[in-house]
Structures are given as C-alpha cells and as structure tokens.
Amino acid sequence: MSTTTGKILGGTGRYLDDRLHGARGLRTFLRKIFPDHWSFLLGEIALYSFIILLLTGTFLTLFFQPSMTDVVYHGSYTPLDGVHMSQAYASTLDISFDVRGGLLMRQIHHWAAILFVAAIVCHLLRVFFTGAFRKPRELNWVIGVVMFTLAFTEGLFGYSLPDDLLSGTGLRILEGVLLSIPIVGTYLSFFLFGGEFPGHDIIPRLYVIHILLIPALLLALISAHLFLMFHQKHTQMPGKGHTDANVVGQPMYPYFMAKTGAWFFFIFGVTALMSTFAQINPIWIYGPYNPSGISAGSQPDWYMGFLEGALRMWPSWHWNVGGYSFAFNVFLPALVPLGVLITGLAVWPFLEQWITGDRREHHVNDRPRNAPTRTALGMAGVTFYGIMWLEGANDIVSRFLNISLYLTTEIARYAIFIGPVVAYWVTKRICLGLQRKDNHLLEHGVETGIIRQLPNGEYVELTKPVSEEMRAVLASRAERPQIEAPDGDDVPAARGPVGKLRGSLNRVLTENIPLPHGNGHGNGHGNGHAAEPTAVTAGDAHPDGPEPADGDGAGA
Amino acid sequence: MSETHPSQDLPEEDGQQSRAPHRVIGTPPPAQARTLLGEAPGSPVPEPPRELPAGPDNPATAQTAEKVVAACFILSMLASIGFIAAYVGLEVHSVDATLRSNLALGLSMSVAFLAMGVGATIWVRSIMPNVEQVEERHVLASSETEREAFTKTFTEGAEASGFVKRPLLRRTLIAASVPLAVAPLVVLRDLGPLPGTSLRHTVWRNGTRMVVYGPDTPLRAADFSIPGQMITVAPEGYTENQDVLAKAVTIIIKFAPGVLVPNRPGQPGTIMNWTVDNIVAYSKICTHVGCPVALYEQTTHHILCPCHQSTFDATNGAQVLFGPAPRPLPQLPIGVDSEGFLIAKSDYHEPVGPAFWELG
To answer: A505 Cβ partners below 8 Å, 6+ apart?
Structure first.
C-alpha cells in the first residue's frame, strides 16, 4: 500500500474514530470469519434479489399509476388502441412501450421476484436439511419462516397491480377465498375491496401494501436475520478441524466482501440476462381485466401454485348448517395446506428439541443423511408441496402427458396422501444406506482399483484409508443425547402418555447406524479379510507392490 | 472447499508467508521460521506478524490474472457506456422499437454486471492469497454473574418505578391501553360498505334485454339458432360496468330439441319455463371461486371452468359433474320481448358466484 493511500485511510479513520469510537469494533468486523460452502450462497441470492426488487421497484413507482379509473387507451401499443381499461393497466402499458428501459425494469422486477421466492425456498430447505435451525438459531429460523410467508404474499399483491386479465382473475379467486371464511368472510371481502368485487379500491390498497408495508416489514426482518446470523456467527459444514467451538473460513475483509460483491453482480447480471431474452408477464397479450374474460391455461406465478393446486384437488365440500354456509371446498384448501406447512416449519425446531432432549448449541451442520428421520420428514413435506404445486398446473400436465384432465386431479387426490409416506420411507432408507456406505469407507478405506494376487492365488483389491479431511466428514455423525435416564422407567415424566409418546418419537427421530468401532481408525479389521495382512492397506505401504501411475489418486 | 497450493518454486523464506496461516485469532502466532536465519546486526524490533499474506500464492498466475481481471472491468465499463448510448440512441414508442431497445439495454446491462462479477471472482481466486483462518466461538449464554446482575438491575428499575408496588397505577395503565389498542381497528370500519343483501342480487330484471358481450348488440332468439352455440351476454346498459358484470354476466346456450333434461320434483334438471326455444341461460360466474366458466364442449354439453376445472352439465340444470364447485350454476329465467329480442324474465332466483357465509 502506498504511503499516500495509507495517509488518506489513516486520516479518515482517525476522523471517524474520534467521533464514533469505531476502530476496535470495525476491526472485529473486518476480521469476521465466514465459512465457505456453495449452499451458503442460496440465502445471499434471496438477499440480493430483494435488493434488485427494491431498486427496480422504485423505478417502476415513478411511472406506475395505481388507479382503477376507467380510461380509453391511445398509447403506442396499437392493438389495444381505443380499448377501455384501468389507469393501472394503461400505465403498465406505458412503462412497457413508452418509457425507455421500462420493459426491461418490469421484466427484471418480475424475474427477480420469482427468483426471490425460489431462493428463499432453497435456502429454507438447506437450513432445514442441515439442521442449521438448531439451538441457538431457532429464533432466526422463525424470522425466516415469517419472511417466506411475507415474500409470496408480496409477490401475489405485486403481480395483481397491473390489473390485467390474468391478475384480475387471481384477485377474483382471492375474493372467493375471503368469502368462504366462516362468519366474517363477507365483511372481510367488502372491507378489502371497498364494496363488491372488483370496485375501485383494491389496486391502490394492494399498492400501498406492496410498496410500503410488506417491504418495510421485510427490510426490518432481513436486518434482524442478518444481525442474528452475524452475532451468532455462521454455521459450518463438517470438516477437518471444524468444531462447535470454532468457525473456519475466510475473513470478511477482503475475501468475503469481494466474493459476495461478485455474487451480487452475477445475480443482477443473470436476472438482467433473463429479462433481456425471456419474456415474463406480457400483460399486453392478456388484455385488461374484465369479469367475463379468462384465458385457458391460466397459471399464477409459481409460488402460488401450491395453493392453486389445493383449490383444484379439494372435494366440493359445502354444508348448509342453520342457514349459514360452510364453504369448506374453498376455505379448507386455502387454509389447511398453507397452515400445515407454515406451522410445521415454525414449530419444528422446538419440537425436535423436545423430542431429542438436545439442548446443546450446534454450529457444525448435519449432513442430511446423518439425520435420516428429519431428512425423510423434509422430503415428505417437499412431496406434499410438490404434488399440490403440480396439481396447480394440472391442465398443463394433462396436455403434456396426454391424459385426462380429471385423471390428473384423481391421481393428485390419492398422491397427496401416499406420496409423502413413500417419500418418507424411501428417503429414510437412502439416508441409512448412505450411512452404511460411510461406515464402509471408514472401516475399509477407498478402493484403489489395484488388484493384487496373493501367493495362494487369491486376488484382492487394495484399498487406501480415507484422507483426514474425508474422515472428518464421514465421521461427523454426532451422538444424540438420550432422553431416558439410565434407569429410564423411574423418571416420572417418562411414564405418562406424553412421556411415552416422547420416548417413541425419540427412538424414531434418533435412528442412526452407529459409527464403526473406534471411529473407523481400526482400518482393515473385521472385513472378512483380516487373515490377509496385505489385503487392505494403503498403496504406498507396499514398495514391492504394483505402483500406480498416479500414486495419489483413488481408483475411480 | 478451497485448498491452499503453495507454490513450490518460491524461496524458503517467502514460502512460510505464502502458506495459509492456520491459527486461532487472538492466540500468539507460532515462532517465525525466519529467526533461524539469525537477525541482521542492528535490525529493529520485528513488526508483529501479519495475519494475512501480503502477496499472492503464485505471482506468475496472479500477473496473468491481473490482466484478465482488468480486461473484465474494461469490458464492464464499455458495456455500461453502451447502456447509456443505447438509452440515448434508441427510442421506444412501438413494439419493434421497444424490442430493439430492450435487447440493447438488457444485453449491455447484463454484460456490465456479469463482467464485474467474473472479474471480481478471478481477483479473489487468483490474486488474493488463499487463506483459511479459525475464529473461536464463545458460548452465547452470559455468565451467571452477568445474568444475576441483569436481574438485579431490572428488579431495581421495576421497584423504583413503583410498577409492582402500586397496583392502582398498573391496573389503570392496562385499562387505558386496551381501548387505545382497539381504536385503530375501529377506524378501519369505513374501508367498505356492509354487505347487506347485495351478493343476493344482480341487475337482471323482468324485461332487461340481453346484449352480446363485446359488440353490445341485442340478440333475437331467432338469430341464435344453431344448436351447440354458446354466447356470453350482459344486461343492456351495463356493458362497461365491471361491478355489475362481475355478478350479472351470463352465458346462453342453444340446444337441439329434446336434449335438455327437464327438472322433475326431487330431481335436478333444467327449468323449462325459464328457457326460450331450447335456449338456456346460466350464470357465467363459477360457484367455486368466481372465475368465468368460459369453456363449453358441444359434444358432451359440458361447461368447464378453466381456473379449477369445475365441470357442469349444461343440459341438466348445470349440475356439477366434477371439480370443487359445490352447487350448479344458477339458471336465469329468460323470454323474448315484443320485437323478438332475448330478455330476462326476472333476476336470478338464487345468489350467483362463490359461496359466502350468509348464502345458506
């Protein structure tokens, strides 16, 4: 560093430190260690697409008019010349065809929104499957679940704003869902829409929620989310030297700053690239909203798909009790799947802690295979969500697979129950199988591909002990604390029905293949070849043995 | 993920520095190998050891990488200039012009960002020395002493405030907060009118002419004569009123004689008195969640809602055949006026559209 730069930095530093007392805290900040793993980038995608949304969204507010006043269009998009439409729709056409860069900004905004929710879902799954939600991070997990809910609500309200035929139909469905709520539904609908559907209030009201309320909430929650992550320090994947008492990685400055800055540029670049070449939400093709029009194959944005699917597959349950309607054909599909998913996600860390009795701090993540029941439950949840999501596009699926439309719904009605059970069972078997494979590697080492003939004519394959790094990963399966006391039956809490339930759940949830004896260090024992001393040892321990061309390489 | 590859051809003295320092922050550094060389006579007190190496792992690679990174940044700069040029130079105001502008702006923007990203990534990976550091974690829980001190401070504050000792103050404060919290909910009351019975009615009246939605022209029963036809109609005078159309929009279907299934007591079916010359009118608003039931299959006489695929039997009083809709599409009584135009004979006899609590 040149002296001049040093002087400038020093001067600025002194000026700020005199006023803010920042040197010590800032130094800690600069030296903060960030662990490295590709899956840690998923949350960053969500963060950066949110920033893209704020930037492009601000641009769009400068031109968009959230008004349902009827106007006759005379803009640049001639096919709609002379057509009655709301000012919101007309101004969206103007943004697309009469503002330079407007179409690009609209498309970046929409693509970034799709990416935002997708990144949140992937990040959430990563955190779930690696157990990164465990103590002390339960609160941050709950904040994340709240943000996930806010994110797709924000998306729904956002794509409703242009008041085109597709989004207007979405609002009509929203009205139907509100009306189905027992007792208060009709009133809620009239208050939200300012009277009967569609009225003249819904767009300006959604606009305020979309550009002010939810973004402000998200911004506050993101700040809390990042602060907690920073304060508690990031989790790390299992590896050599990675413990619950340390964090191994690269410092914030200059490494993490540069890498995350590059990542922001990549995300913005890819979003821009998609918006250049992949059309999204061409509202001029859909036309302005009218209550009588509809397009076949109408689909919401992907993140609303699971609710759409629930609406499609639910039976037509409707009961008239004492002169009042229980429209459970709409109310339950809108409420139950969302409720099951969000509540399940929110309470899971606490439930898991209660079942396992594990109240320790965890900073090294689980490999998903090392928590087979959790991973299996997660896959059951993914399947539950996925079937609803596919059913939300069942008309497309039916056309694509060339099967009856009704058959897709019938299949979904069974699959929603069978699918998660199958997914649970298959995932658990795969996880336990992978654990056995890890044990095998720990016990017998890696196959080298080198075949050796023993003096008695027997052929054996040489194996090589796994590297220290790999051993740390393979042997990372932590023991779980037992909830039962050594004399289990004498614990009063374990005798009641709740205690028994907890005991059974504990046995299921902590099911694991034990690590090999001696943590795998007794390499080469008990594999049936114990009598052959040369059978399973490192290749380099045999100077007289056939030397492989690539001495370090494990056989493919 | 990242591994350190110290370059083999470096002199021994530098080799120590170029390796990844692998130690816990806050602990004393290991003795430096350079002391083995012996201190130069009169050398000053050695500076504290570096936490990060000053130079790259591999200077030769770094030198090449520097050029590549600089090229990336120059490319990004050119692309940004190109973006501004495209903004100034390319007008919009037509579909084709918008297409060109979007392509130029989007492409230059993408290149500007991606080149920055690529450049920064190469910079980190090939120029900055690869390090791995370890930072200690501390148990998040405070010590018992600190917790007790906090509890004491909190209790003292509560005692000093008198919040615990003076129940009158405490209770009146709580009593004052409750209506204050309810007030913001009350002011939301004027968001909309009360529903009343408005969901039970549409604007259809005896004598209201049906106009074809779109051209807005009235329709003679005699002109709607081809069996299998389906048309969307609206009440005359309301074709631009979305609030009215959201409930009143109606489909009429023409059938061949004998196809319609008349209703019998206790059996579903089409109310034949409400039809004209085998033309039957149903609400177009799905009884599920209100999408327009716009698809009609002539051969099966099925009406299908494209949103959630509720299927109704048009011949049989629009009974539900499949899907989540709970009740048939309401049938509108229709007739013809003195000039032969199709008219409504009354309003719908039951509410149209999705179920609501008071529907019953």
So the answer is: A355
Mutate to test the interface with B, among A39, A86, A329 (most CBs of B within 10 A): A329
Closest residue in A to B328 (Cα–Cα):
A316
Placement of tokens 């979305």 in the chain: B242
Of B346, B348, B347, B338, the C-alpha closest to B220 is B338
Name the residue in chain B with its Cα closest to that of A32: B135
Same domain, residue pair A21 and A142 = no
What pLDDT, on the 0 to 100 scale, is given for residue B253? 96
Residue A481: pLDDT band by 50, 70, 90 thresholds? low
A144 shares its domain with A94? yes
Collect all residues of chain B within an 8 Å Cβ-Cβ radius of residue A295.
306
The closest alpha carbon to A547, from A417, A482, A452, belongs to A452
Residue listed under structure tokens 């949110």: A50
Contact partners, residue A388, CB within 8 Å, separation at least 6: A305, A306, A307, A309, A310, A313, A337, A412, A416
Closest Cα in chain B to A99: B92
Same domain, A169 and A257: yes
A-chain CB neighbours of B25 within 8 Å are 31, 33
Domain regions of chain B by residue span: 12-31+49-127, 200-359
A233/A254 same-domain check: yes
| pTM (two decimals) | 0.88
Domain that holds residue A514: 444-541
Q: Identify whether the C-beta of residue A448 lies closer than 8 Å to the C-beta of residue A433.
A: no
Q: Domain boundary residue among A239, A261, A292?
A: A292
Check CB contact under 8 Å for B246 and A196: yes
Look at A198 and B140 and tell me if their CB atoms are within 8 Å: no
Would you say residue A363 lies in a domain?
no
Mean pLDDT of B181-208: 93
Question: Which of A80-94, A190-204, B19-33 has the lowest average pLDDT?
Answer: B19-33
- Classify the complex by whether its ipTM is higher than 0.90, answering yes or no: no
Q: Which residue of B has its CA nearest to A307?
A: B308
Could you tell me the pLDDT band of residue B75, with boundaries at 50, 70 and 90?
A: very high
Say if CB B346 and CB B205 are below 8 A apart: yes
User: What pLDDT is recorded for position A521?
Assistant: 44
Q: What kind of fold does domain B200-359 have according to CATH?
A: Rieske Iron-sulfur Protein (2.102.10)
Q: How confident is the model at residue A493 (pLDDT cuts 50, 70, 90)?
A: low
Would the CB atoms of A176 and B1 count as touching at under 8 Å?
A: no
Determine which of B121, B135, B252 to mutate to test the interface with A (most A C-beta atoms within 10 Å).
Answer: B135
C-alpha A49 chain-centroid distance: 14
Give the mutation candidate from A78, A265, A467 for the B interface (greatest B CB count, under 10 A): A265
Residues A13-46: tens digit of each pLDDT: 888 888 888 888 888 889 999 999 999 999 999 9
